[in-house]
Design goal:
Blueprint: H1 2-22, H2 41-56, E1 71-72, E2 77-79, E3 86-96, E4 102-110, E5 114-136, E6 139-163, E7 171-180, E8 185-190, H3 201-238, H4 243-246
Antiparallel strand pairs: 1-3, 2-3, 3-5, 4-5, 5-6, 6-7, 6-8
Length: 251
């Protein structure tokens, strides 16, 4: 009889340990869950993104998700002398305003699998160090400086793909981002006194022309970096939860 009781207790203890190990974790407050049957699924999903957006500004330390606003680029871009006779180098580049977006439209292509989000960035600001050398007409330039370039009302299309083949874990398969910026306005500042340099319209026009050329390359880098960081963030945030928890009644 004692042997039966001992075996029963051992079995119960083992079962309890296994069940505690496999039990689903509780959903944190920053995850607002939407069901397929919600009467206004699109609005519910917008709310979900906006809640997560507000938390991501400071990062989520308990799941090792840092803030990526500002977004650190850091790469060196160099533009050789053009017909204007000016060479431009920039480095230590950061982008501010990435997480201050507004959702314009949200399309549920396949709930739990594929979404398209159209967003507006009221203001994106790119900052970094710069070096200018050469001449513009009779004006000789040899400056180490910092730059601030501002874009207003830029837009982006984000496509989020989820892989639901493993029912025990939500996996973000791919994030595609296409960013469209308007014309940027560049201001250059002296590294020693912080004052704005160059007050001539012709010089400003040439400098803005060079930065316009840089922006085509820079936007491509921002897109790729954001795609990588958003995928990593999404898998860190959602990866510990089952499909049933994140996308209940999706199928």
């Amino acid at each position: 009889m004692k042997m039966h009781i001992s075996n029963y207790l051992a079995l119960t203890l083992t079962f309890g340990i296994v069940m505690s190990y496999w039990s689903e974790p509780s959903i944190p407050e920053y995850l607002h869950i939407c069901e397929k049957k919600d009467s206004n699924l699109t609005e519910c999903l917008k709310t979900s993104i906006e809640i997560l957006q507000s938390v991501l500004i400071n990062g989520i330390p308990n799941v090792d998700v840092p803030s990526f606003d500002p977004l650190k680029i850091g790469d060196l871009f160099k533009f050789d002398k053009s017909r204007h006779g000016l060479q431009v180098k920039v480095w230590n580049i950061v982008v501010l305003g990435i997480l201050k977006f507004k959702i314009e439209k949200l399309h549920v292509i396949k709930h739990g699998k594929l979404y398209r989000i159209d967003v507006l960035f009221p203001k994106l600001q790119i900052e970094g160090g710069c070096e200018l050398s050469g001449s513009i007409e009779e004006f000789v330039i040899n400056e180490n400086c910092s730059f601030v370039e501002s874009f207003h009302n830029s837009t982006a299309v984000v496509r989020a793909h989820f892989n639901l083949k493993n029912e025990w874990m939500v996996q973000t398969e791919k994030i595609d981002i296409t960013i469209k910026t308007g014309k940027g306005v560049v201001e250059l500042y002296d590294l020693d006194n912080g004052r704005r340099i160059f007050d001539r319209q012709d010089v400003d026009n040439v400098i803005n022309h060079h930065f316009d050329k840089m922006n085509k390359n820079l936007v491509f880098v921002i897109e790729k970096l954001l795609q990588h960081q958003l995928k990593e963030m999404s898998n860190q945030v959602f990866g510990n939860f089952s499909i049933g928890q994140i996308f209940p009644l999706s199928f």
